[in-house]
Amino acid sequence: xxxxxIRARLDAxxxxxxxxxxxxxxxxxxxxxxxLLPSRGGAAEPGAAGEARECEPLQIxxxxxxxxxxxxxxxxxxxxCLAPAAPFILFRLKREGFSRCRxxxxxxGLLVRGRR
Length: 116
What we know:
By secondary structure, the protein is an alpha+beta fold. It contains three helices and four strands. The chain has helices at residues 3-9, 12-36, 86-95; strands at 53-54, 73-79, 99-105, 109-115.
């Protein structure tokens, strides 16, 4: 069977997911590793109340407290990250003094919530 025939038999959404798998694994490993490192501090970048802010793994190096909204809520969305990074994110949130922390795995990435 030729490669073209195999690709033709695969579902279009499934084929798209298979192409993104290495990127998703890389971003998941990057997020897990960076969550274990201590934060370096940084300027506050408050988000809009009630909205999740899209965040890249490298942005958490300055601390997750930078992304709090006016009510002390944290809502971050890490696109293209997988669920195995969740315990590492929770570890980081607890280390930074957050409570009511949770990480939800969605099809497009991870949604992180917490309160300080």
